[in-house]
Amino acid sequence: MNRIGVFTATRAEFGLLRPVITALEASSTLEPVVIVSGAHLSERHGMTVSDIQAEGVAIAARVPVPLISDRPVDIAADMAATLKGCAEAYAALDLDAVLMLGDRTELLAAAAAAVPLALPVIHMEGGHLTHGAVDDSIRHAVSKLAALHFTAAEPYRQRLIQMGEAPERVFTVGSTATDNLKAFGRRTRAQVEAELDLDLSPGFILATFHPETLGEMSPAAQIDAFLIGLAAGREGRRVLITLPNTDAGSDTVRTRIEAWAAANADWATARTSLGARRYLAALTACDAVAGNSSSGVIEAPIAGVPCVNVGERQAGRLRPPGVIDAPLAPEAITAALRRALSPAFRAEAAQVPPPFGDGRAAERIVAVLEATDFTGLARKPFVDADRQGRRS
User: Fold this and answer.
1) What is the pLDDT of residues 135-161, one digit of tens each?
2) 84/79 Cα distance (integer angstroms)
3) Where in the chain is the domain with CATH 3.40.50.2000?
4) pTM of full prediction above 0.90
């Protein structure tokens, strides 16, 4: 059995890793070894390790980090703690490779921890662009540390090859978000109301807003613009909004959202975290998604739900037709929401063929891993291109 470490630090990333963990559990030659860190172990961020346990997933190691504040210097300290803790966990667990997904600060630390151990890194969801966040540079850095790559779409694969990655090590498999939605199915508003103990009639908007870490506006100005536009454009719907991740500026965004939801409690509800399954339930039952989460430009289009994507945080990702981009200005957000909530646009978004694969991404990932010889895999080539653009 090859022991594959699976690193997870956030609610969103675990949801996308879950289909792969399930497929690894079913493999006769691979064994998933789950390592939990970051916001999963933070009371302030919902202690979402409980969601992992509720899924019946065995946790092999926990790597706690301070998460003292959202100041950049404290986030750097969290990265240092993650690097140290992951290196110790990897060594103790006798892994053959470590799998990770995405572009968070803690992910870069987790990938760097594998380097001195000559432990191959397997990276999911590389090749994206997100111009408005530091995630962009982190994602590319993790890609350069990784020995194997699994991308959600062919343009992302080509971007990694352009970065010098060997084509035979980069696989377009689709997104596990499609796997999740295909397996999970749709939920009705009544089912979501019962599960969350909320009144969501006559319909609701699912919102998430994270700080735009490379934006020119302050986090306070960003979230204020979003909330003003959201309130004016909701067209009588209720709003269910989840609190932000641990990025720089997130404390300000969190405080502003909580105060706003309390002041508008007759139609707005803020939740620290819904968990992967409850979030997908809400996403499939809502009238529209709004904010700047990657779920708005990936999961929402797969589910056929309109999305108003705000600001530059997700700028550069592929844009399915059901996504409406709006700048961080209240009037623009209001206008985009009204368009997204119109019957014509909702019908159009629901009819768009699902992008990002056919729901078999995890199956393809595990098939590649079962055929992989992990011995010496950490020794990766750099593939140069000649002047004519051909690769040598």
Assistant:
1) 889 999 999 999 999 999 999 999 999
2) 9
3) 2-173+360-370, 188-351
4) no
